[in-house]
Design goal:
2 copies of one chain form a homodimer. Chain A is α+β, with helices and mostly antiparallel strands. Chain A is built from 8 helices and 22 strands. A 6-stranded mixed sheet of chain A has the order 13-14-15-12-4-16, sandwiched between helices. A 6-stranded antiparallel β-barrel of chain A has the order 17-20-19-18-21-22. In chain A, helix 5 crosses helix 6. The two termini of chain A are 31 Å apart.
């Protein structure tokens, strides 16, 4: 591929220099920041995540902060999921939609105080979105990007490592719940979260000047457990059925099509953005659904930049939106965003690169 | 630096395979797409631009299409520049602002028909922005991302090359004016435009399946003039004083601070987004302005990912937002976003990486 050159338009996280010093070799760009992805040994990175513990610079998971008298009101306006019972210290996964009910992000909402919320976002500009809605509705709320950068600790040994740093109280955190704390005077929030299904925490650094310090503390605590470097891994997230907004979705995808309908509450008031469209989509029934794909063949053949057509009898019935070699299944697996007419058990044909046709089976998600 | 790996979240342009086949070595990410930047010989790329002709894959300059009865109304609502005299076939440079008068993009607006407009945007999500405003105001307009990807031909010989392809009518195009046309059945628009001050055109490809074809036509026509590969070059754009929205601006920058005040019409109606804030900012007088910097020292020392502090007498007075080695000046030059108290002729101190202090002179922009 190619190298990315430095520019003030693409920002490093507070952990960037540590990640580069430890030998980061490949990265992605996410929220106009650099997301370290691999340190050169993907098999080890996967194995560490599955069997031990890894630390990831996920500073690219930015926070859209809502602060002020109308913060709670705006949070609900932007979320088609009922937040009325959300408590301080609680986080909630929220499919964020536009007025047409199209998915535009899938953040974790964190309620820090009654008038202070963060949306910890996927890769799209929710500051623009939130500011436009808030200003047009003349809400009394300040929308900003605070100095907050998550560092993830993931894997079956993550809890042990994080508890050794912060104490046993972290073991009591429920999923997506968090606590504000500090460490050597570094302001932090610790949440049970992370973009894998192997368990773990995200440590939200709240002072960007102390990234190296936090990195080293986690690294040091993890040494005993052979903590590895890495980044969110495509094989694990695909096996686990996690959605990547913007990879698995496009400009026409609604939450019902990608298994997020359970997070939509259609009884919310009409002022919630997209709720009327979502009621209509739900009533009519979505036209597509997201299923798993198990491809024929026994060598790695990942998806490149483009979605690939799925056909049955020569007719296009959907798209393969994601494809990666699964270490556990020893197969190429992926996601289909496909007509409701196609179902689990069906065989479909994929139009791969270089005009290759490959058969695949539709299966349920997640794979594990 | 590091490699970027393929993902459906980062899209290639229709010219990507051609650019890679010709040996693209470095790239940036812009509007979540890949922007080929260099083919390994930056001195030649600069020299070709200054003295001959180059072709650039600038497919990342995406179009935000407004279509329908309220398209003209929305275009004006989003633009604090008077569009009332804009004619079909005309383009206009527009500083786009949020409700607080903060610059969020600086697109070229193209008027294709009375009810069809494109914003050819810089690197920020104007689809989100436009959709939020349009929906909140219940305007009858469809906002989309059409299948349109610009290919730039730049440099003193660009007009000769483009005229040899399309005919002499291109010589009559005024700056930012364009004409819809086709070539071997490929639908196109040809505009006198481009992100350099060396003259040239942007050819808007309107069928993404025909990118390689268009690339080869331009390459073939350019052979006689030794057309080079490349991408928008930091040295030339800095020498020429062009603004890069998101590099030279941040979350607090208004158009008056970065020499774009002349494109703001304060007499526009109150429904134009940001116009009330811009009137207030103009009346109070902006606190900062953008000046050139000429740094001491005679070896290349470009800005990396971060802005760098500018101080006078140990006090921070502004930021260096951009810095690059100028082939013409044989100096490091850059932009200051700096207090109005500092002016042309002043000497300031830059806090460079590794704690180095470097003196610089404030000068007028553009350098050339």
């Amino acid at each position: 591929m190619f190298q990315v050159f430095p520019t003030a338009r693409l920002r490093p996280s507070p952990f960037f220099h540590s990640a580069m010093a430890e030998g980061c070799t490949s990265a992605s760009i996410y929220n106009r920041m650099i997301l370290p992805a691999s340190f050169g040994d993907k098999e080890k990175e996967y194995s560490d995540l599955m069997n031990g513990v890894v630390m990831w610079d996920v500073g690219v998971e930015r926070q859209v902060q809502l602060e002020g008298p109308d913060a709670a009101k705006l949070a609900q306006i932007l979320s088609p999921r009922d937040l009325s019972k959300c408590k301080v210290g609680q986080g909630k996964y929220v499919p964020m939609c536009n007025h047409d009910g199209i998915l535009i992000n899938d953040p974790i909402l964190l309620k820090l105080h009654e008038d202070l919320y963060w949306f910890s976002i996927a890769d799209s500009d929710i500051w623009f979105w939130a500011r436009a809605i808030a200003a047009e509705r003349r809400l009394d709320v300040k929308i900003s990007e605070p100095d907050v950068s998550p560092l993830a600790v993931q894997g079956p040994m993550a809890e042990t490592v994080v508890a050794s740093i912060f104490g046993d109280w972290v073991r009591d955190l429920k999923y997506f719940w968090f606590k504000e704390t500090e460490l050597n005077g570094i302001p932090l929030a610790v949440q049970r979260s992370g973009w894998s299904k192997q368990g773990g925490f995200e440590i939200y650094l709240r002072d960007g000047s102390r990234g190296t310090e936090l990195w080293n503390i986690v690294k040091q605590a993890g040494l005993l457990y052979n903590i590895g470097n890495g980044g969110p891994t495509s094989p694990e997230r695909t096996e686990s059925g996690l959605v990547s907004c913007g990879s698995d979705t496009d400009d026409t995808t609604n939450p019902y099509e990608v298994r997020l309908g359970k997070y939509v509450d259609l009884n919310l008031p009409d002022d919630v953005v997209g709720i009327e469209a979502l009621r209509r989509i739900h009533a009519e029934g979505p036209k597509r659904h997201q299923l798993g794909l198990v491809l024929d063949g026994d060598s790695s053949d990942p998806l490149s930049f483009h979605w690939e057509d799925i056909t049955v009898g020569g007719q296009k019935v959907g798209d393969m939106t994601n494809c990666i070699w699964s270490p556990r299944m020893q197969k190429n697996i992926g996601y289909a965003l496909i007509s409701k007419k196609c179902n689990i058990g069906d065989t479909v044909v994929l139009a791969r690169s270089n005009q290759r046709k490959v058969n695949a089976q539709l299966v349920d998600l997640p794979f594990y």
